[in-house]
Amino acid sequence: MNKPKDVDDYIRNYPADVQVKLQQLRNTIKKTAPQAKEVISYSMPAYKANGVLVYFAAWEKHIGFYPGAGAISHFKDRLSVYKGAKGSVQFPLGEPLPLELINKIVDYRLHEDEAKAIARRIKKANELPRQILKCNNRRYCSRFNCQLLV
């Protein structure tokens, strides 16, 4: 299969029964994370907010869902009925997709992604030169509601 140009093109390359499942998965992700941008990354559909939230891919006997190690670890009890690895899970084509669980995983990834983005912003702010703002020898002062100035 050639590299798809978008998610519609990706889904179109599979048999009708697989297309239905891929579309269900896509709709669930889009409903849970409407602000996420749909992209093709590593020749798979991916959904990005601040970073990549999840990927998915169709295979011969399953649909691979790739939310990352943190999400897999967090939902390990509910995902234990499926094959998987550190950052992925395999949903067999012969079974219905666990859409409610996928919804919760995507929601978890949204929160995880936002937390990482905030941490990056704080780290970047802390790397600014020391002369920027000091209030009582501190960078932040909740008592006077000081903010970093650039």
UniProtKB/TrEMBL annotation:
User: By its UniProt entry, which SUPFAM superfamilies does this protein fall under?
Assistant: YdhG-like
This protein's source sits in the domain of life called: Bacteria
Instruction: Give one Pfam family, short name only.
Output: DUF1801
Under the heading Gene3D superfamilies, the entry gives: 3.90.1150.200
In terms of InterPro entries, this protein maps to: YdhG-like
List, for all copies, the residue spans of the domain called YdhG-like.
Answer: 21-108
Protein name in the entry: Uncharacterized protein YdhG (YjbR/CyaY superfamily)
The organism is Mucilaginibacter phyllosphaerae
Organism lineage reads as:
Bacteria, Pseudomonadati, Bacteroidota, Sphingobacteriia, Sphingobacteriales
